[in-house]
Design goal:
There is one protein chain. The protein is mainly β. It is 0% helix and 49% strand. Strands 2, 4, 5, 6, 9, 10 and 11 form a seven-stranded mixed β-sheet that branches. It has a four-stranded antiparallel β-sheet with strand order 1-3-8-7, with no helix packed on it. A hairpin with a 6-residue loop joins strand 4 and strand 5. The protein is globular. The termini are far apart.
């Protein structure tokens, strides 16, 4: 069974940094594009960033450009989050699809909480 597992969330002060990781169980990540999404209480899910299966293509939401960086190796996809703001508070999920333009309908992790607060 294909499973994704996120880690690295936590509580951080405004201006701080966190690095989220996404790992796979039951399959290898390197065949898939991986997207990071987030959902804050009372808000719709938002696409944050995506990286292609080769790592050659990356995309970012306007709200995180210049602050977040997505990267990958053969076993993990990382989301480095710098200059965090209270509005970045959300549950962050990683998801897999063949392309960043895909629907990301099938494979999701359980999420990791990120809280930015003083």
């Amino acid at each position: 069974q294909l499973q994704l597992v996120e880690s690295g969330g936590g509580l951080v002060q405004p201006g701080g940094s966190l690095r989220l990781s996404c790992a796979a169980s039951g399959f290898t990540l390197d065949a898939y594009a991986i997207g990071w999404f987030r959902q804050a209480p009372g808000k719709e899910r938002e696409a944050v960033s995506c990286i292609s299966h080769t790592g050659g293509e990356t995309t970012y939401a306007d709200s995180v450009k210049g602050r977040f960086t997505i990267s990958r190796n053969s076993a993990n996809v990382f989301l480095q989050m710098n200059s965090l703001k209270p509005e970045d508070t959300a549950v962050y999920y990683c998801a897999a699809d063949y392309y960043c333009s895909g629907s990301f309908a099938d494979y999701w992790g359980q999420g990791t909480q990120v809280t930015v607060s003083s």
